[in-house]
Amino acid sequence: MGFATALSGLKAASTSLQVTGNNIANSQTTGFKESRAEFADVYASSIGGVSKTQPGAGVRVTEVAQQFNQGNIESTQNSLDLAVSGNGFFVMADTVNLPDPANPNAAVDPSVPTRYTRNGAFQLDNKGNVVNSEGKYLLAFNPNDSSDPSTTFSVGVFRPLTIDTAQGLPNATENISMKLNINGAAAIPTAALFNPQDPLSYNNTTSVTTYDTQGNAHIASTYYVKTPVANVWDAYLFLDGFGISTGGQAVAPQPANPSIVATPVNTHGDPIPMSFTSTGLLNEVGVRAAAFATAGMATAATKAVADGTVASVSSAAISPAGFTVPLAATALADAVVASASANALAAATSSVNSVPSAKALSDTAKADAIAAAKAASDYATSAAKVVDQGTADTAAGFLATYIGLAATAKISVAAYDTAVAGIAAGATKATKVDFGDIDLTAIDPNISVAPMAFDIDFFGTTQFATPFSVNGLNQDGLPAGNLTGIDVSGTGVVFARYSNGGSKALGQVALARFQNNQALAKLGDTAWATTSNSGQPIYGAAGDNNFGAIQSSALEGSNVDLSSQLVKLIIAQQAYQANSQTITTEKSLIQTILNA
User: Fold this and answer.
1) 335-382 confidence digits (pLDDT tens)
2) Which class in CATH covers the domain with range 175-286+425-475?
3) Which of 126, 299, 455, 463 pairs with 550 at a CA distance of 20 to 30 A?
4) pTM, whole model, 2 decimals?
């Protein structure tokens, strides 16, 4: 009889109606994915297979398959509303491991993902954690360096995304960049000595606000003085009115006295030479510092350093009877030459005014240092191989003289390498000048902060015959600030934005994808869980490895198409009615037989 067949049709049509009704009911549910009822025919079979005349035994529902096509992205006004445009699910956890308030720096075990969703309507709980409406935690990858805008993240190590509402920490100034045009046609100042209180002693000045480790503001002013040397200017740095040398010393300012135009008192730090080419482009900055490094290297050649670099010379190891007058005389002559060469080099470097000259002198210093080291080595070798050609007393005297001269001529290879490294570093920072270990208590005894250390980069500065102009003046320090908002990038990086203009990376929103989305287990609340058929989750960040992008202040709407669902509703209704009619017809046929 066809009752069973018609009944299976009724069940299938009823299921189709339920699926369609559920789709229609969730047409406004954020992140909802519509489903469709899938059917298969049923035949009664035997060992011989299905007969050619088998009419069929009805229909059955094989699966209610969800369709993970993209829903419409709708803009909102909440920065914590997130939408995935493309492949991927937000990673959620039912419970998380949070830092101990009493020990916030202690290690915390990573959180374990338990569910996945496309619903990005998030909010904050009372502890600042980002959660959904059911209180489930949004997981993110930890930043390796929250202060670095280009930081990387520990993908696969999950932490609850927490919005830090604490005050934004200050940033001490580390870099100042200045892009200027210095008037090449300007006259040399008439005042004989530079004095920041005497406008006739300098040509121009610039100022920028810098910050120490506690966020205190300090005005850094730079004065520019044209020198008699062609294409060379001197720059003087002042911090809150105190002259600063490259070594970090702060020089007290000259007391204000209009009657004193210039005085021999040093009211400033070391000048910073700025060298320009004949075409007006910046050549080198801070060349005297490089020259001083060269001088220090040359001085190291004459400094006695008993570090064992050259084979040691000991009177106990060398027989006084085995020393010769000719060898002692040679050793004495070589030591005198090496010492004189090093001393001459040290004296010459004190007046260096250009980096090219400093480089040439550093090459000379290198050659002289090698020669001095070789001479010292030769001394030791000669002393060890002497043949007795004199009296014991004379040999002992020469030996003592030789030991002193060898120690004087011996150069410390470590000191030499350090000096060479200093020259190399200076060459790579030709446009920069470093100011380190500035003791701020010498400027303001009422504050107690770490010394400031920053560099000034003059890259792009020119010397053209046009008025002095500031084309760029920036520094990277920040005062303390308050949280003003949250920004989320297309790659899911969440930044806290502060009133001081700074920002901090709080984490990168974690995404997951699966080999078979339709095999995910439905948990309700637009969430899914993994199954054996879905495959293990593949974690990553938005924009990478086939993951979609993340849009902030937006939500993904339901992907239900109401028009098509209404048509499906009519079709399911007709199928239900038709199957009902099959049952009515079967009933009529049976009634006819019974009435016969």
Assistant:
1) 445 455 545 544 444 433 334 444 454 455 555 545 554 554 454 445
2) mainly beta
3) 126
4) 0.59
